[in-house]
Amino acid sequence: MGIPVSECLLKLMAEGYTLDDYRGDIPPRWCTGCGDNGILAAVQRLCRDEQLPPERTVFVSGIGCSSRFPHYMNAYGFHGLHGRALPVAEGVKLRRPDLHVFVSTGDGDCCSIGAAHWIHAIRYNMDMTVLMHDNQIYGLTKKQASPTSPRGVKSNTTPRGTYLDPLNPLSVTLGVANVSFVAQAADWIPELLYDIISEAYHHKGFSFVRILQRCPEFMPHQFDPWVQNPDKMLLLTHEKGVQLSAGLSKVYRKQEAHDPGDLHRAREIASLSEQIPVGILYRDSDVPCYEDVRMVDRLHTPDVIKGVLEEEFDKFTIWPSE
Amino acid sequence: MNGNLSKLTSFHVTGIKPALEAEDAGERSFRPALFAGYGDLTKLRYDYPVVLVESAAGSKFAQSLSDVVDGILREIAPQGAAGERLRKHVLKLEEELRGLVSQKDGASLLDLWDAAEKSLLTRTEKAARDLLRDSLERARNALHVDGEVLDCDEATPTRFITRGWNVVQAAKIHAVKKRIEHLVLKLSDILRADYMKTEEARSAEIFRASVGTAYDEAFDFSAMSGILAKERAGDLLPDSRRQRVQAALTVLQAQRFHAPLHDFEQTVVRQPLYDFVFDSCAAALEAFRGRLPEMVEVIKAMSIAELEIQNLYRESRHEPFFERFDEGALGPDDLALFPSYLICLRDERIDPAEAGRIFELLNSDLPAKILVQTDDLLRNLSLSAGQTSSVGGLELGTMALGLNKAFVLQATNASLYKQREQIVNGLRRDGPALFSVFSGAMPRVAGVTPYLLAGAAEESRAFPVFAYDPAAGPDWALRFRIDDNPQAEADWPVHRMMYEDRDLQGTSEKAAFTFVDFALCDGRHGADRVPVARGDWHDDMIPVVEHLDLAEGHAPDKIPYVLMVDENDRLQRVVVDDKLIRAARRCGAMWHSLQELGGINNSHARQLLDREREVWEQEKGEELAKLAKRAEPAGDASPAVAPPPPAAPVETTIEVEAAAEAPSDEPYVETPRCTTCNECTELNSKLFAYDENMQAYIADPDAGPYRQLVEAAESCQVSIIHPGKPRNPNEPNLDELLERAAPFN
């Protein structure tokens, strides 16, 4: 039940945000040619198209190139600790479910130091949009191998090349209980990047989007085979997923009609090695959100807060013996 | 024709009671024959007694005792022989309970349960007592509901609907209450945050008070105050805003429509809450109108609070709006934020002015829920010519359908429980609703329980059950329901009646239950009936239902009778006078029109069907005639050849696939594919620029040399820049540049 008069007033008096309203004071300091720029543009477009009030929107990040994101947005931001973007975002959402929460994290931040939080955040399924910028390298600290670096990548920490196969963020996410939204996007297909982020935003629950992101500085040409040969990309389309424009269909001819409700096929797609799948792999809108499950139906009036505090203090109070 | 028959004929026509030779002296009591099977209802399991369950939601507010007991048995008694003992014991308790309900009006289920258990145990032999006690204890542990227990009587409709209203109201208004409290909290926060910036809030006294006495010596509160006072606290709220927030807060805290959910630090003294249950429309309307200005203030305060909390209140824009905001601006959505008004009326007390007010309310958007209870359904039947009566519940129900605006439910005490979902539905709706209920507690009917009489009123079409919900859809098919009536497709419901004949042989016959059967339950109509001794039975006597099927006045020699039973349950034919037959015809006609509205035997549909059938038959006939003609041997030998079908027009337009974009001489960027990587804009931000989606396009092709276009194309990682042909033919090294540009064009 709404408040009809003020709703109508709000609509009438809406300010109308433009893309500029979402730009932070600092121009992005990512390298020229960095895929992060495209992600930022897509998110700013989304904010404008959804007319999200900047004061009701929060961007939370950890550490890394990706995590500079909040600085470039004109909204609330929390540039947190390495690997701890998700717990901070969960705290925000739990206390302020009315805010739109976005998380920017990277392959190092999410899959290495923050891996434990990542796994549990999927299980908690709190309503937020998580953008995992995956450039397969630690860029901010000038090239160290990350969990998603392909085998053999030579870096400052692996001068003879990495020895292990990379971790697959999609199949990991799809393997966790309560997973509710998993998608993959590529920064070099901006149209689809926008559509996927938009779908993720509209999904109620933990929307995990892995974005393959080019790093021209430390991983140049890493994605060239796919950027230059659209036939190596596999675009996932479905009436319940994303649909392609005619122009995009012409360029990317390899397509698969994939129902995002099909978890088994989603896991198969996630494990493809030659082709890069782009689209929505999995979506289940019925998974309950932790903030709803744990929602307390009471107002935090000053009296309630005082009462709870008194109760807690009383547990530690030493009463003088009579 | 024997003497008695002619006397009966004369009675039927004139209504003057004859002195029959074989008739017993004195007035005898008769019941409709179909009632013979229903004596003591406390022995039967049916919808009553009903438990008005406390703390239940939606239509679960009422549960029949049988349903409650069945639920318990499902939980505790295993299927088959193992559960047999439990079932037997618990059903015995249920029977005991039924007997107690009529004696202890308004008692709660738990109290009745205890009383029934006690009396059952004392009456049981000692040997069987332990097992019985064990069964009842287990059943009691599985009993999860409690509440007032209702039997079917005169008070039932009011108590039933009032409880439903309470339950619906509580659920409906809960969200609003929460919203209001949220607003109060947020407005208080705004004021408190502002207060914290004042010097007063930073005074030593306030600090001292907030720390308490234990550490009084340890702190220098004046020094603390001095330090904090130097800090710039930020701007205080403008006076106009503070006053506005304060005013909205006061209105929300003082409003008397909603009870608070929590204990708040009330800064305003609240008057007693408003009452929303009335026993006349006049009082309800007066109360509503008197409260209107306060409702306007509450809506205004809520709207201002919403805007203030989101920091969107703009004085220049909103002030003029709120200044003009008055009663006229309240819409149905606004009214929905307040409780609805429940008005409980008795139909015999409705005077013409009150009837007018009922329609006034039903024709409005006001949230009025009106219950009209009818007790004496047949009072109009004894009116003589020239007498008129006021509008009763039965008429109100059908007339309200014509308003097309209000929710209407017509039901009887017997179907109230079955209609509980519809009741909740009507109470939940925002607009007005009418519940017209026949209680069955007719004043002059002895020996028949209200439940049975209410059921009889439904069966006999005297008080049909229907529901009209204008919110259910755009047409009558979705809005109107009469299918809860017994045998709704039929004119009169027909039942098979079993009885013993004179030779004590079981036999059965079909008997319809008509309006006449119902009317004869009423002692006032003793004058309209004459029992006929078996010896006087005659072929010209026909059942009333057959008589009603004959066109009026078409069978002057036929005498209508109904089957009734006397005190000893002996079957009798009872002849009735024409007055009752006329009333039955009126009732039947009313039922037919309800049937039509409900889609049964709809005359428009039938006419349309007839017309269509006629057209179809005519077309078919013509076609058949043609075929027959063709089948006749033709004059010439050549067989008839069907003319070749006309050649399909050749599709001359050929789908031309959009030609691939021809390479252009002009430079261009595939903007939708741009990844905003800044490569080109850093090269020349006048030549390349970003559009409103932060994607690159060529802003001015003359803002840079061809060389830059080629370099940009080369450095673009997604290869979406196409340099085209050079615009300046004198640019140096053009040949080389053209060669480099070739892969991108």
How would you describe this structure to a colleague?
The complex is a heterodimer of chains A (322) and B (745). Chain A is of the alpha/beta class and 322 residues long. Chain A has one domain (18-316): Rossmann fold (3-Layer(aba) Sandwich), CATH 3.40.50. Helices cover 34% and strands 17% of the residues of chain A. Chain A has twelve helices and eleven strands. A nine-stranded mixed beta sheet of chain A has the order 2-1-3-4-8-7-11-9-10, sandwiched between helices. In chain A, strand 7 (181-186), helix 7 (190-202) and strand 8 (206-212) form a beta-alpha-beta unit. Chain A is globular. The mean pLDDT of chain A is 92. Chain B is an alpha/beta fold. Among the domains of chain B are: 1-17 and 440-626, no CATH class; 49-151, no CATH class; 198-233, no CATH class; 668-744, Alpha-Beta Plaits, CATH 3.30.70.20. In chain B, helix 3 packs across helix 5 (126-141). In chain B, 33% of the residues are buried. The chains are: A alpha/beta (322), B alpha/beta (745). Chains A and B meet through helix 1, helix 2 and helix 12 of A and helix 6, helix 10 and helix 11 of B.
Radius of gyration of chain A over all CA atoms, rounded: 22 Å
- Give the low-pLDDT segments of chain B: 21-26, 647-660
What is the beta-strand fraction of chain B? Answer: 5-15%
Radius of gyration of chain B: 42 Å
Q: SSE order of chain A, as H and E?
A: HHEEHEHHEEEHEHEHEHEHEHH
Strand-residue proportion of chain A: 15-25%
Tally the beta strands of chain B. Answer: 21
Largest interface: A-B, 41 and 51 residues
Largest sheet of chain B: 7 strands, mixed
User: What is the arithmetic mean of pLDDT of chain A?
Assistant: 92
Strand order of the largest sheet of chain A: 2-1-3-4-8-7-11-9-10
Q: Kindly state the number of beta strands of chain A.
A: 11
The geometry of chain B reads as: extended
By CATH, the architecture of chain A is named 3-Layer(aba) Sandwich
Find the CATH topology of chain A: Rossmann fold
**Structural class from helices and strands of chain B?**
alpha/beta
Largest sheet of chain A: 9 strands, mixed
Q: Helical element count of chain B?
A: 24
Distance between the termini of chain B: 115 Å
Uncertain spans of chain A, ≥5 residues at pLDDT below 50?
none
